[in-house]
Amino acid sequence: MGSCSSNSTHWIYDVFLSFRGEDTRKSLVADLYVALSNKGILTFMDDELPRGMGIKPELERAIEGSRISIVIFSKNYSSSSWCLNELLKIMDCCATYNQVIVPVFYDVDPSDVRHQKGRFGEHLDALDATPDMLSKWKTVLTKAANISGWDASIFSQDYDLVDHIGYWVWGDWVKQPWPKSSTIGFMADSSIDVSLKILEKLV
C-alpha cells in the first residue's frame, strides 16, 4: 500500500472515498460506504458536505483529515477536473501527513489510467485546462495508478471487491477482532494473505 513520510495524529476520518459520481455513486461506492460505516470505520464521501458551506474548503479538510484515501478510478474519472484536482490534493496530503492511498480500478484498465491511454486518456485531453495543469494531472494519475490496489475485473461481483477492501481496512488499520457477521458481508473467514496476493498482481 502507498504511504508517504511524515507523522500525524489529526485524523477525522479513517477513509476518504474519491470517485466519479456518475460511474459508481449508486453501485460500488454506495455498497462500500455502507459496509465500512456499519463496522464503525469512519468514512467520508462528498454527500456529507454540510449545506450552506463552501464545498472546496470542506472537501480539503476531509481529505487532510483522512488517514486512508481510496481512489476509485472509473471510465469517466478523467473527464472531471473536480476529481483530478481532488486527486492532486490527496497526493499532496500523502507527502505531508503520512496518509495511505489505495487505487481501485473499476471498469477501466489500470494501464489506461497509468499511461492515460484509450478513452481514459481522451477524456483527459478533452478538458479545458492549461498545459501546466494537464501535466500535473497526468503526473498524479501515473503516480496513483502505480500504487498497489484492486482491479475490479478480477472479482466476480462488486460484493467480493467490497469484502476485500473492507477486510483490509479493518485488519490493517482499525486493529480490532474481525466480526463474525456483517450486513453487507465482509468475509470473516478470509485471509489477509489472499488480499495481499491480489494487490501484488498490480505491482
TrEMBL record:
<dbReference type="InterPro" id="IPR035897">
    <property type="entry name" value="Toll_tir_struct_dom_sf"/>
</dbReference>
<keyword id="KW-0378">Hydrolase</keyword>
<dbReference type="InterPro" id="IPR000157">
    <property type="entry name" value="TIR_dom"/>
</dbReference>
<dbReference type="GO" id="GO:0007165">
    <property type="term" value="P:signal transduction"/>
</dbReference>
<feature type="domain" description="TIR">
    <location>
        <begin position="11"/>
        <end position="169"/>
    </location>
</feature>
<keyword id="KW-0520">NAD</keyword>
<dbReference type="GO" id="GO:0061809">
    <property type="term" value="F:NAD+ nucleosidase activity, cyclic ADP-ribose generating"/>
</dbReference>
<dbReference type="Pfam" id="PF01582">
    <property type="entry name" value="TIR"/>
</dbReference>
<protein>
    <recommendedName>
        <fullName>ADP-ribosyl cyclase/cyclic ADP-ribose hydrolase</fullName>
        <ecNumber>3.2.2.6</ecNumber>
    </recommendedName>
</protein>
